[in-house]
Amino acid sequence: MASPAQFSRGNGLRKSILELAPLELDCMNTLWPLGEGTVREIQQRLAPTRPRAYTTIMTIMDRLAHKGVVTRHKVGRAYLYRPNLTADQARTHAVEQVVEGFFEGSAEALAAHLAGEAPTAAPARARHDGGRVPAQKPVEKAERPSKESSASPRRRLDEILL
Predict the structure, then answer these.
(1) How many CB atoms are located within 10 Å of the residue 49 CB?
(2) Is 0.90 topped by the overall pTM?
(3) Range of the domain at 86
């Protein structure tokens, strides 16, 4: 399988798995457990949660093939699609992109955010453009609700993302 950075689109290297459209990601999440599959198989497995026309899924899978996210080969009259990266590779790459883009490369800052903790000061680090990112000043910790009324960190994250 190719590394996440190796899948490409027609006009150059694709920067991130995060650039996939929601339906493209749904198709990939359906294809990964299969290992390989046809448009019909993907459409049928998506039908209970995201019903779409066969031609819609066919278009999405064609786009994923052109982007280099999947490979395909003809079997009879249908194409058989296979992912070019594993679900684990895609998740790892996506988390790396989130950490880099939102948390200045600090996995600890992401963990603190998910735990609902205030950010702590971090040393300045070099940026890709050669500039320096100054250390963040600590933010006063807000009063946290009691455990009885507090939702789990996962629930809070889901609510924030929706």
Answers:
(1) 8
(2) no
(3) 1-117+150-162
